[in-house]
Every structure is written in C-alpha cells, then in structure tokens.
Amino acid sequence: MPFSLGDVFIVGVAFDLLGGFYLARGLLAKPRDIARRTATLAGGNPTAAASQIEAGADGRVGLLSLAVGFLLQAGGYVAEVAGVTVSTDLERTLVAVALASVAAVTAVLLARSPRRRFARRLAINVARYDWTEQSMVELPDFNMLAWYSNELGFSIAGIETRNGPQVALDAAPGG
C-alpha cells in the first residue's frame, strides 16, 4: 500500500485544520476565562496577562501548523503539475483518511512542546516591559514573572531577573 500524491494533500489539510483551531482558540474564550480576564486587581491582572500569553503561544503554533500544511499542499500541487498521477479507489481513500488522522494526532502531540516554549518566552518578554519607562528592558521583573509562571504553570528557576526574588512565589498575587 504505497503512498500517493493525494496523501500529501490530505496531510496538508490536516495541518491546516489544526492551525485554524489554534488560531481560533485564543479568540473563542470560555465564560470563566472572560470573567477572569476582566477582573480588576491592584497592580495588574496576571490572569489577563497569562491569558494573552497563552493566546499568543496558540497563535504561533497555529501559524506554524498552517505553514506546514500549506507547504505540503504546495508540494502536492508542484508534483501534480510535474505529471505525477493520482490513483482513486476505496483503498486510497482509506489510506488518505488514516494518514490525515495520524498526522492530526501527531501534530497535536508535537504542538505541546513548542506551545509551552512560546508561552514561557512570551511571559519572560512581557515581564521585561517596564511601565515606568514605557519600554522593554534587558531583564524581566521578578514579581511579574512570578505571577505569570504561577498562572501558566512553569518554573522561573534559573531565569535572571532585574530585581531578584522580592516576594516568595506562593505570596505572589494569584498564588
């Protein structure tokens, strides 16, 4: 049961669908998330920031998945223009559906790691914003980073900050 040109198209579509899901996920907020995002807290709202960080990470994973999907489809179109023929029968259809399913599941599992890395990197960069200077500074603020790490579930161990651990992590707002 060899693979065919049609399989490239269907796997590309699976990546496109996954990409669309991740892009939309940041826009389709649950009621609980909307309530948490709109809460007013003294000194900031780490939940709102974490929500935006997660949406940014989802958007990056979505764009990456869309790029893979479109590149696969473009490769399929190029092969088709070059004269590669596509067989069409029930066996090919079942193989294509199985490949799309495997590609979608694999992509979802593989997206977890980059999504976590994107979220962590975004959290560090958001914590680098200095409100008094209205600009990005070299090192992140410890307190803000502690808030974000608490909301997003990552460790800040080993991350150099500009003002050191002024509060314990469990004393950070939202912690």
What does this protein look like?
The structure is a single chain. This protein has 175 residues and is mainly α. The protein has one domain (5-129). 65% of the residues lie in helices and 2% in strands. It contains five helices and two strands. The protein has helices at 5-25, 31-37, 46-81, 90-127, 142-152, and strands spanning 129-130, 135-136. It has a two-stranded antiparallel ribbon. Strand 1 (129-130) and strand 2 (135-136) form a beta hairpin. Helix 1 (5-25) packs antiparallel against helix 3. The longest helix is centred in the middle third of the chain and has 38 residues, at 90-127. It is elongated, with a radius of gyration of 22 Å.
Assign an overall shape: elongated
How confident overall, as mean pLDDT? Answer: 79
Strand order in the sheet with the most strands? 1-2
Strand content: under 5%
List the total number of helices: 5
Write down how many β-strands occur, each being a DSSP E stretch of 2 or more residues: 2
Query: Topology as H/E string?
Result: HHHHEEH
Q: Give the CA-CA distance, first to last residue.
A: 55 Å
Q: Please identify the structural class as seen in this structure.
A: mainly alpha
- Pick out the low-confidence regions: 166-175
Based on CA atoms alone, the radius of gyration comes out at 22 Å
Helix content: 55-70%
Tell me about the largest β-sheet. 2 strands, antiparallel
Number of domains: 1
